[in-house]
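Researcher: I'm preparing a figure for a lab meeting and need a structural model of a single chain. I don't have an experimental structure, so a prediction will have to do for now. The sequence is pasted below. Please return the structure as tokens so I can convert it later.
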Amino acid sequence: MFSQINKKYPEAIFVAKLLTLFSIFYFGTEFWIGITAKGNLYSAFCDEYLNYVEWLRLFILKGASIICNLFGHNTIIENTKSLKIVGGYRVNMVYSCIGFGILSSWAAFAIAYPAKLKKKIIWLFGGLLIICFINILRIAALLMLINKAKNIQVFTSHHTVFNWVAYILVLILIYFYTKEKQEQSQNHK
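Model: Understood. Here is the structure written out token by token.
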């Protein structure tokens, strides 16, 4: 019965998969943040051994630190939550800066879209790495600009700019990811 529905309404099935996967990834991450942050539902085990949100934050901060160091700025990571130029300003990376909404969007699309498994895996991880890389560039650029301007308030819209750039990038990824299937469907007409 499911295969009949899938053949008759493939777009509806795709949208249902997309929304379900996005909800699992996004709200699952929100839940995970809740149980790895000390408070009501805190799990020391999950915080200590399974805290992928903290690992992702540290990955982004270490990448930004490497870029800043390449530009001659000596940086330190403080408490796995902020990056600071030695003797200068710091950038605090709160949960919303990690970009898990954008990462969840891409992961949901890459998995829900009908493609061969190998292609899904390559595009899924390639897209996630690209999104993380532009976030690394954002954090590094923000830190260097704040230290050059000596004013943190000058760059308050960096989060919005990052979201725009990241979602445009996701649309470009979607275009290239789906391009082969679009060409195949046009050739069959």
